[in-house]
Amino acid sequence: MPMEPAATGVDGTGFARVCVLRAGRARLALSGAQMVRNERGTSDLSIPWPAGVTTRRAFRHDEAVSAVVRVSQIGAKLPGVVTVSTIIQDRDGAEVSRETRELPVELFATNRIVEHRAGLPLSRLQPGEYLLTFEAKSGDQMERSLLRFTVDGL
């Protein structure tokens, strides 16, 4: 999209990543993962989406950051229990953290979409680059959403 900053009058081009949830026909679908700054650093599902979403991908050990993904069962005849694993791997592919949570079928009763939030254990991670993977499973269906981030050594 063409852009022109008011202060400089210089023309330029901007790019934005757009993530479309392919939920129309899918029995199970995941949105793109988002990083969210929070004050509590918890896996609190009651915090509204998308409060605190940030484009930052580099964080300090003392920051409270969560990752959020939307889980959809719009295309399923009957929604089922979804097991979501939040996996963090270091730059060598070694798994350094895994948290698994079941999303009961009742959460999908209203609109068949649930926001899943997982607190990142930044204080326990060494400085470096990491890959965050949300992996959702329901029956024989499995979907993944990936996001890279960095823990600063400062």
Question: Could you name the CATH topology?
Answer: Immunoglobulin-like
Q: N-to-C terminal Cα separation, in Å?
A: 36 Å
Total beta strand runs = 12
Name the helix and strand elements from N-terminus to C-terminus, one letter apiece: EEEEEEEEEEEE
Largest sheet: 5 strands, antiparallel
What's the CATH class, please? Mainly Beta
**Regions with pLDDT < 50 over 5+ consecutive residues?**
14-18
- Our count of helices gives 0
From the structure provided, what is the oligomeric state, counting identical versus distinct chains?
Answer: single chain
Rg is 17 Å
> Structural class, from secondary structure content?
mainly beta
> What would you say the CATH architecture is?
Sandwich
Supply database-style keywords:
single chain; 154 residues; mainly beta; Immunoglobulin-like; 5-stranded antiparallel beta sheet; 5-stranded mixed beta sheet; elongated
Q: What is the strand and helix layout of this fold?
A:
Elements: E1 2-3, E2 12-13, E3 29-30, E4 34-37, E5 53-54, E6 58-59, E7 65-72, E8 82-90, E9 95-103, E10 113-119, E11 128-138, E12 141-151
Parallel strand pairs: 6-12
Antiparallel strand pairs: 1-2, 3-7, 4-5, 4-7, 7-10, 8-9, 8-11, 11-12
